[in-house]
Amino acid sequence: MNGRNEILNKFYNEICDEDTRLDPKHRKLEFLTTDRYVQKYLKPGYRILEVGAGTGKYSLHYAKQGYQVNAIEYVKHNLDILKSKITDEMDIVAEQGDAIDLSRFADNTFDIVLVLGPLYHLYTEEEVNKCISETKRVCKDDGVMMFAYLPNDSIMISWALLQGHLKSGYDNKQFDENFKMISDPSEIMRTFYIDEIEKIMDLNDIKKINNISTSGVAPHFRNIVDNLSEEEFEIWKNYHFRSCERKEVQGYSTHMLYIGKK
């Protein structure tokens, strides 16, 4: 197996429980916010492609609503869980595949293409650009593309500071002199600056619709957020919904979502 394949299969088989990742309150905002923006563009009869579908949180959600869904997932362990949840009334096809090769699909096929994980794990500019160009190719001319990505500074907060990796990260050169995380499969996650992702999309002729924070800072304060009452969580959720498009609060968000079109 190549480096990316071996590392990601180990990560999702043994370390990250993707199937329950979005269940706690501090992670739930990521799903609620992403879905909130997807719903803005959905229309009856739309075809949806999710690339990097994980265990199916989003794909199954939209299939249950009656949409025709294709789901592509790189890790077989995740894909098997997704497939186990498909019911007869769902119009969904789930297959193993890679975000940098969507050749099984014709040009201009899908109304909405969701890329909600692959940019976390593509480590070269060639891979990133190939993922974007393939997404653009299979999306209809009037369709919408959504790319999730990890802002660099949120990883400095969550991984380096809160998880105690400042010194080891510095000693092992896991970030550069500007504290940008090194892009390498052994580091699992790839990060971007917000301005950087916008420049990459511009170079790929993707027109920006929006660039939003999907989780905010809630995962940095997981113990506090998870212990909020339902009423308190509703207040925090509403604050997040009203602030997630503001650039001044986005840099430390753990997840971002770039929304664009051709």
Strand content: 15-25%
Return the CATH architecture: 3-Layer(aba) Sandwich
Low-confidence stretches: none
* Overall residue-averaged pLDDT value: 94
- Rg estimate, integer Å: 18 Å
Count of spatially separate domains: 1
In CATH, what is the homologous superfamily? Answer: Vaccinia Virus protein VP39
The CATH topology is what?
Rossmann fold
The termini sit apart by 35 Å
Q: Could you characterize the architecture of this molecule?
A:
α5 links the parallel β4 and β5. The chain is of the alpha/beta class and 262 residues long. Strands 1, 2, 3, 4, 5, 6, 7 and 8 form an 8-stranded mixed beta sheet that branches. The two termini are 35 Å apart. Helices cover 41% and strands 19% of the residues. It is built from 10 helices and 8 strands. The protein has a single domain, classed as Rossmann fold (3-Layer(aba) Sandwich), CATH 3.40.50.150. The radius of gyration is 18 Å and the shape is globular.
List keywords for this structure.
single chain, alpha/beta, Rossmann fold
Summarize the topology.
Elements lengths: L2 H13 L9 H17 L5 E5 L5 H8 L3 E6 L2 H9 L7 E5 L13 E6 L9 H14 E13 H11 L3 H6 L19 E2 L1 H10 L3 E7 L8 H5 L3 H14 L12 E6 L1
Parallel strand pairs: 1-2, 1-4, 2-3, 4-5, 5-6
Antiparallel strand pairs: 5-8, 7-8
Task: Characterize this entry briefly.
The protein is 41% helix and 19% strand.
